[in-house]
UniProtKB/TrEMBL annotation:
The lineage of its organism: Bacteria, Bacillati, Actinomycetota, Actinomycetes, Kitasatosporales. It comes from Streptomyces avermitilis. Residues 892-902 have a biased composition (Polar residues). Residues 620-799 form the Ketoreductase domain. Keywords: Acyltransferase, Multifunctional enzyme, Phosphopantetheine, Phosphoprotein, Transferase. GO terms for biological process: fatty acid biosynthetic process. This is Uncharacterized protein.
Length: 931
């Protein structure tokens, strides 16, 4: 597959050009041909020399992208991967034609150069393009009112369309989409390809392309201009005009290729931009196929290409490893010739202890009760001889039921945890040492001015964008205010700008070789108690993501600090205290009352009376998102059993989901009315349409949001688009439900969150961020006087949620699988007690902590029985330059063995004024297989 624009990035493939002889040979040939056609050098453009033009010029980026695509195809083929077909997107068809043999390299270079030059000279500045997350049909209907001012430019998939046209009309479309919650983004071009504007260059383009000599190809060429296979001898001047004028039919062509049995799609580009569209087609057609990129943005060297080769190989591509490894010294070894038995011999985890309802000496009695053995019960109770057993007929079953309920209650109690904020006592004056880097996107804003004052002379440099050059260190630490920006990202609205910029900053620091701990600051993302509640739930996503960053690269992560509403001198002193404290604590909240640290504490009910007995209304509708999945279906059955009048089950597949028909029949047999809607809850318009189907006689009374997407990838391997994809269902879906159901009389608004948001899980940064938002949204709704309950789940067993092998792996990591019926019971308890946030998980903390705290202590996410009653003290810096008369300064009679303090008694532990360097370790692997 060969994309058009969008995959380019500064320095793309430069390292591969330097390291791969085959790739270099192809790039050298392309550079030689282009040099005869342009006034710039491909070598200088790719390597970003001082006088080279930038990739922002269409007459530079299109030829350069063509060269990289053709050269990548040559490299894949040298590795033994021969294409069975080629397909291109817009200008990508030129590279596809060259690889298919339908155009010579010289003709391809001439065509892409002349085409892009005409666009720059005649079309640039008169149009634009926008990507819309709607089907082509829905998009065409939406843009009809502009009467040709906007047209469909590309059918990428059933869920993604590109439009092009007049700038003013496109601006109106973007505003309309934003108002209606439809994802749309402006593509960074100032011309309108595949629109009527192209007609003004028809004559020039056909005349310039007349010299192209198409020829028979040796690889099938599938045209996204005509929508089907094409003899490459037809790639004449008229075809190349139609290529630029007609809409790109990539979606239909991809589905046809899938129907023909093609099952490995390889993208020849410096960054995968067609892979998501192929995955959409795979999902839409129910086929099985893999889509693999070649390089990634800012990761364009031989290591990334080798990883792509390996991924393609395990997906079925025939890689010639002898050719790949060459003279590297790698040696082929034989695998054992006998078949693997796949036997596992891990020590099994200890069974969770739970209160049994009777002491050990009473065990014979309770065993008799459980068996229903009346004679044995009478003997254990030493009833008088001849006394009738009649009374025991009713008593024993009642005792058995009572004991079973008590055991279940005790077990579920042992699964319950909550987040608590514990005050700590910091010294009045905390001194920072070393050089600190401040990162802020708003250097003149209130927070930046306050932070510079708070950190004082320790701030020796400031960075205003994660994309800018990192000032030379070494740095003691990095303080980032990027997380304060919780407005939607312009290209991926589900992702807050602060989260996107923090991921970019982590990448930039890593690439600059800076291991100094990064501290992320937010404001209103957490609440420490009833009088201090969450006010910025969007910023809470940084907390979920940050916990994962700390696991994936402990040496480069400091922690998280939530700022108070009032940024004054006291808050400044608390910030210095937190940053100076070293690595023992990673999560702080600064409040007028002092410094707080986060703790996960056990939260047993211990028989506390419930506030209510929640049941779904018989005359209301319960909306269950992800309702046809394993979790959603289990929730739906529970609701139907409990008497729900009407269930609206939403899922992306709707009734096409596996088992949907049987589920609906089962729920109706239980007495519930059921509606199943094919709906992406991240799409506001789709969700609104689904909610509009609710019958008037069954108004929406409750919501259970189980929908979610989880893909494993470390943050340094996660693109912004991938981040948005994972965050969309959980975070955007929760936000859409909150907004669309405003004003409804709800008696339950349940959000299924994950343990990944509570303690982090390597490879699940986006997932943790999305679930942290769910927890914060529940708290924010409570602040607004609305009902909400968010449960962060551990691992559910059974029902297709976790297979047996994975369940055993999780248990070995300390996360035991919970019986789904008991988990539902825990949810019922949370609703009965009207709780806001709760973590429910069956943990072996000793096993879990062995991995989780291997790199550094993590007291914020490993539980204590109760939060400590008195404020905990933190040791001040050992050798600060205390000004005379400051509280907390050692008095003159201090000696080597003792000190007399004029301030509070010296606490037992505090950092040295600067975080202690941590050795680089591999990321901690934590288990968090959750809903």
């Amino acid at each position: 597959m060969f994309p058009g624009q969008g995959a380019q990035w500064a320095g793309m493939a430069a390292r591969l050009w330097e390291s791969s002889p085959v790739f270099a040979q192809w790039m050298d040939r392309c550079a030689e041909v282009l040099a005869r056609l342009t006034d710039w050098s491909l070598t200088e453009v790719i390597h970003e020399t001082q006088d080279a033009p930038g990739l922002d010029r269409v007459d530079v980026v299109q030829p350069a992208s063509w060269a990289v695509s053709v050269s990548l195809a040559g490299l894949w083929r040298a590795c033994g991967v021969e294409p069975a077909a080629v397909v291109g997107h817009s200008q990508g068809e030129i590279a596809a034609a060259c690889v298919a043999g339908g155009l010579s390299l010289e003709d391809g270079a001439a065509l892409v150069t002349l085409r892009s030059r005409l666009i720059a000279e005649e079309l640039s500045g008169h149009g634009g393009m926008v990507s819309v997350a709607l089907s082509p049909a829905d998009t065409a209907e939406r843009i009809a009112r502009w009467n040709g001012g906007i047209c469909v430019a590309a059918n990428n998939s059933r869920r993604s369309t590109v439009v092009s046209g007049e700038p003013e009309a496109l601006a109106e479309l973007l505003a309309e989409c934003e108002a209606e919650g439809v994802r749309a983004r402006r593509i960074p071009v100032d011309y309108a390809s595949h629109s009527a504007q192209v007609e003004r260059i028809e004559r020039q383009l056909t005349e310039l392309a007349a010299g192209v000599a198409p020829r028979p190809g040796d690889i099938p060429f599938h045209s996204t201009t005509t929508g089907g296979p094409l003899d490459t001898t037809g790639l004449d001047a008229d075809y190349w005009y139609r290529n630029l004028r007609r809409p790109v039919l990539f979606g239909p062509v991809t589905e046809e290729l899938l129907a023909q049995g093609h099952d490995v799609f390889l993208e020849m580009s410096p960054h995968p931009v067609l892979v998501p569209a192929v995955q959409d087609a795979v999902d839409a057609t129910g086929t099985t196929a893999a889509a693999v990129g070649s390089l990634r943005r800012d990761d364009g060297g031989p290591e990334r290409f080798t990883l792509s080769l390996a991924e393609a190989f395990v997906r079925g591509a025939p890689v010639d490893w002898t050719a790949v490894l060459g003279t590297s010294g790698a040696r082929r070894v034989e695998l054992p010739t006998y078949p693997f038995q796949r036997g596992r011999f891990w020590p099994e985890p200890r069974t969770a202890a739970a209160t049994t309802g009777g002491a050990e000496e009473d065990a014979p009695l309770w065993r008799a009760v459980d068996r229903g053995d009346l004679a044995a019960v009478a003997a254990e109770l030493a009833l008088p001889d001849g006394e009738s057993l009649h009374d025991l007929h009713d008593l024993v079953p009642a005792l058995s039921g009572w004991r079973r309920r008590r055991k279940d209650s005790a077990l579920v109690d042992s699964w319950r945890y909550r987040v608590s904020w514990t005050p700590v006592t910091a010294p009045v004056l905390a001194a920072l040492t070393g050089d600190w880097l401040l990162v802020t996107a708003d250097p003149d804003g209130e927070a930046a001015r306050w932070a510079r004052t708070a950190l004082g002379a320790s701030v020796t440099a400031q960075l205003t964008s994660p994309d800018g050059p990192i000032p030379a260190g070494p740095w003691t630490g990095v303080v980032s205010l990027l997380g304060l920006a919780d407005r939607p990202h312009p290209d991926h609205p589900v992702v807050p700008v602060g989260v996107a910029d923090t991921v970019a900053l982590l990448s930039a620091l890593r690439e600059a070789g800076i291991d100094a701990p990064l501290w992320g600051l937010t404001r209103g993302a957490v609440g420490t108690g009833r009088s201090d509640q969450v006010r910025a739930p969007g910023q809470a996503q940084l907390w979920g993501l940050g916990r994962v960053a700390g696991l994936e690269n402990p040496a480069a992560w400091g922690g998280l600090v939530d700022l108070p509403a009032e940024l004054d001198d006291r808050a400044a002193g608390l910030l210095r205290a937190a940053l100076a404290a070293g690595e023992d604590e990673q999560e702080y909240a600064l409040r007028p009352a002092g410094l707080y640290v986060r703790r996960l504490v056990r939260a047993p009910l211990d028989g506390t009376a419930a506030r209510r007995s929640w049941r779904p209304r018989p005359d209301g509708t319960v909306v269950v998102t992800g309702g046809t999945g394993a979790l959603g279906a289990r929730v739906a059955r529970w609701l139907a059993h409990a008497g729900a009048g009407h269930l609206l089950l939403t899922s992306r597949s709707g009734m096409a989901a596996d088992g949907a028909d049987d589920l609906v029949a089962e729920l109706r047999a239980l007495g519930a009315r059921v509606t199943v809607a094919a709906c992406d809850v991240a799409d506001r318009a789709q969700l609104a349409a689904a909610l509009d189907t609710v019958p008037d006689e069954f108004p929406v009374a409750a919501v259970v949001h189980t929908a979610g997407v989880n893909r494993t990838a470390t943050l340094d391997r996660t693109t912004l688009a991938e981040l948005a994809d994972v965050m969309s269902a959980k975070a955007a879906g929760a936000r859409n439900l909150d907004e669309l159901l405003a004003g409804h009389d709800l008696d339950a608004f349940v959000l299924f969150s994950s343990g990944a948001a509570i303690w982090g899980s390597a490879g699940q940064g986006a997932y943790a961020a999305a679930n942290a938002y769910a927890d914060a949204l529940a708290a924010d709704r409570r602040r607004r006087g609305l009902t909400a309950t968010s449960v962060a789940w551990g691992s559910w067993a059974g029902g297709g949620m976790v297979d047996d092998d994975l369940a055993r792996d999780l248990a070995r990591g300390g996360v035991r699988s919970m019986d789904p019926d008991r988990a539902i019971g825990a949810l019922q308890q949370a609703l009965d007690h009207d709780e806001t946030t709760l973590t429910v998980t069956d943990m072996d903390w000793e096993r879990f902590a062995g991995t989780f705290t291997a790199a550094r202590p993590r007291p914020s996410s490993t539980p204590s029985r109760r939060p400590p009653a008195p404020p905990r003290r933190i040791r001040p810096p050992e050798s600060p330059n205390w000004p005379p008369g400051w509280p907390g300064r050692p008095t003159a009679n201090a000696n080597a063995n003792s000190s007399t303090w004029s301030g509070p008694p010296p606490p037992s532990r505090w950092g040295t004024g600067a975080p202690r360097p941590s050795p680089r370790r591999s990321p901690s692997r934590t288990w968090a297989s959750t809903p």
